[in-house]
Amino acid sequence: MTSPPGDRAAANLGGADRPVPDVVVEPDADRLARAVGSALVARLAAAQAVHGTASVVLTGGGIGTAVLERVAALAAEPERERVDWTAVDVWWGDERFVPADDADRNELGARRALLDAVGVPAERVHAMPASDAGFAEPEDAAAWYAGQLAAAASEGGGLPRLDVLLLGMGPEGHVASIFPESPAVSDERPVVAVRDCAKPPPTRISLGFSAINAAEEIWLIVSGEGKAPAVARALQEDVGPRDLPAAGVRGRRATRWLLDAAAAAELDTGGQPVPA
Ligand SMILES: O=C(O)[C@H](O)[C@@H](O)[C@H](O)[C@H](O)COP(=O)(O)O
């Protein structure tokens, strides 16, 4: 990618035709997790109504995991809107390249929070490889995962339909495992190996912008006052993905910033709750 830092029109960013992001603010992290959990159930059910199947890309992190716990709670309430979990493909936006039983694995968190409870078939759970899964290097694991995505694409090659891609955001603006000023920012491959990551563990696998921005909808779920400056920069300043990777995220049909009031506190709108 040759676009200079700060250029929002960079090739991987989806182009100017993408809808501008919308912002939803909930009063606190618990209400945010509840609201996003309900919205995710509705979105997956809607995708299944149209396509027969749905797909979701999961994130690690505290608020992302809280959302999955909320979805599991909703799935246990039979009167609620139903998702057929046997027809949901689950992918990950990033993963730590550590052994499969390491507590740092995003996969383990998601299985405990949701997947074990709702019974997604094993062949639809597309975990990124662990470091003890037979790949000597994370680059090999990343290439394999890109192959998995390509194999799931309906027309061969490329990417499958990704209905909702969930992202958390770090206080410095990282999304998935794309960190500021890191090689992953400008790597055009759909899946990239990440080394020397600023946030431990240091070795990871991440979707690149070309895969993230291929999603139909991207939901950035952000809570806490520590994220407020990065939220304000991403939404209100002309900052590019090299400085603030979250600013480089743009879904095909929607980009939704789903915030609690603390994370929204530095927005010009003041972080007041608004209707979803
Ligand atoms: O693997 C990871 O580290 C996550 O995918 C990461 O991108 C996370 O979502 C953010 O760091 C926010 O995490 P919190 O919600 O815990 O702050």
From TrEMBL:
GO terms for molecular function: 6-phosphogluconolactonase activity. One of its GO terms (biological process) is pentose-phosphate shunt. The keyword Cytoplasm does not apply. CDD domains: 6PGL. InterPro entries: 6-phosphogluconolactonase_DevB, 6PGL, Glc/Gal-6P_isomerase, NagB/RpiA_transferase-like. Keywords: Hydrolase. Signal peptide: none annotated. It comes from the Bacteria. Residues 27-257 form the Glucosamine/galactosamine-6-phosphate isomerase domain. Pathway: Carbohydrate degradation; pentose phosphate pathway; D-ribulose 5-phosphate from D-glucose 6-phosphate (oxidative stage): step 2/3. Residues 1-21 are annotated as: Disordered. Its EC number is 3.1.1.31. It catalyses: 6-phospho-D-glucono-1,5-lactone + H2O = 6-phospho-D-gluconate + H(+). Belongs to the glucosamine/galactosamine-6-phosphate isomerase family. 6-phosphogluconolactonase subfamily. Hydrolysis of 6-phosphogluconolactone to 6-phosphogluconate. PANTHER family: 6-PHOSPHOGLUCONOLACTONASE. This is 6-phosphogluconolactonase. It comes from Geodermatophilus sabuli. The gene is pgl.
